[in-house]
Every structure is written in structure tokens, then in C-alpha cells.
Design brief:
alpha/beta; Rossmann fold; 2 domains; 3-stranded antiparallel beta sheet; 8 helices; 43% helix; 18% strand
Length: 188
Amino acid sequence: MANKLLSTHDIAKNLSVDISTVTNWIDSGKLKAFKTPGGHRRILQKDYVEFVRKYNMPSSDVTKNRLKVLIVDDEKVIRNNVRKIIGKQYPEAEIFEATDGFNVGAILGSEDISLVLLDLKMPGMDGYEVMKQIREDPKLGYPKIVVITGYPHEGLEEKVKELGAQELLIKPFEIKELLDILEDIVRT
């Protein structure tokens, strides 16, 4: 995927915008691109995917690759249950697991993860620190984040959304709650 090149026309078509809009994004530095010897602009697909995620643009055919989910939780039971729920609803999904915040960076650095299901309370690096690192490192591709915690408190939802999470899910949760959140995130 990382080596596929896209033209400004491809991107304009996929996002239903004018080519001049794509050119403006490139000129303003929002969308990474380079020029061919013939003077045509080309964009690496991975840079396009990063742009779409960073600016929460509607997905297009180019970004509708297999769903890749990273489940980050120190509780094996939670990881297994979430894996089963996702696998049943999205059998094409590729699912990765991490037991702590330190393993997240390695997985995000090597895989094009589209969604991170993140526990807040873990040994070592907690979920707050993981979110900060994900949002501060553009090389990680701006995956969507759903925070899962068994320790809700006043102001938590605002805090995790401020750090870049799209949703907050409180343990124990109903399967339907998780599936509804996944459906909303997968559609965008």
C-alpha cells in the first residue's frame, strides 16, 4: 500500500472536490506530495490515508482497506471478548493486541492501524500517555481511538476527547454499545 501513487485527479474524485482544492491542500502543506520530472503532482497512498484521518474526511475507495484494530488492555479476558465481538461483526478485520502502552508504538509503527481500543489503567505507560504519543506522532497515521475504562469519573469524557479519542466506553459494557461505536467509526 505505501508505494501506491495517487494523482491529484484520483484524490479529487475520491473526496468529491475540485482538483484546485487538492492543489491548495498540497501547496499549504496539509497534504504531502512530490512532483514527477514531467511536473505532475503525486501523492503516496499512505500520505493520503494520513491526511484523510487527520482531517476527519469521509473515507473513499482508496482508504477502504481491511479494518485493522489494535486492542490495548492488560486484562486478557477483555482482549479476548473484544476480539470475538469484532471478529464476528467484521470477519475481514485484522486484529492486533497489546498488553501495555509500551507495545502500542511498535504495532502502530509497523501496521496501518485504523482503530485503537484503549484501556486507560495499565501498568507502566497509561492510556492517557499513549493517546498523547499517538496524537503527537504523525508517523502513526492518526488512528481513531475508543477509550475503554472501568474507572469513570466526572469530566473523563471531555478529557479523553480533548486528548484525541472519538468515544468513551465504560466497563462493563453491552456488546451492542461496542458494535454501535464501531459502526459509527468504521463508516467515517
